[in-house]
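We emphasize that the prediction below concerns an isolated chain of 177 residues; any contacts that depend on oligomerization or on bound cofactors are therefore not represented. The input was used exactly as deposited, without trimming of termini.
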Amino acid sequence: MDCSDQISFFQVFATLRVRENMGDGHNFRQLKEAILAHSQAQDWEIARKEWSLVRVATADEPETCPCGHFPILEICTIANQITGHRIDVGNRCVKRFLGVRSDLIFAAIKRIQSNIEKSLNGDAIVFFHQCGVLNNWEYSFLQDTMRLRQLTLAQKVKRQSINEKVIAAVAKRGFHG
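Result of the prediction step, given as a token string:
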């Protein structure tokens, strides 16, 4: 299932004034050139709206973001809804330049990796459902139990099973929204 056209929740593109060189290894001009090269629009404000978050993964080996920042371990694949191009970028660039809160998704992943009984947050639940990792029943179940601290044994088992499914999808970089 291609979720690139369904991530409207994650496509809240804040109008950001971004300096050409962000410091700490993030080069806006370099990222902008990479994004524009794979976009139909050549105006940055329009071109960046062509892109959406379609996959998150944790890298086995450090990678380099198109902005030049190294190392990145939290990889966000963004897809252009018009051209079909995909680019892997760092978590911070998705947040800073596209306004997508992938940091909340990665926080949820880390939480369930450290404690399989914990709940995903709302951002992660919506994202993984839209990308086809979670089915409709799992989506509803996670929403219904997200804030519950005391689960029945059956609910705990089901939450753990769903969390293992999410962890496996992210770990193998195998789901492609």
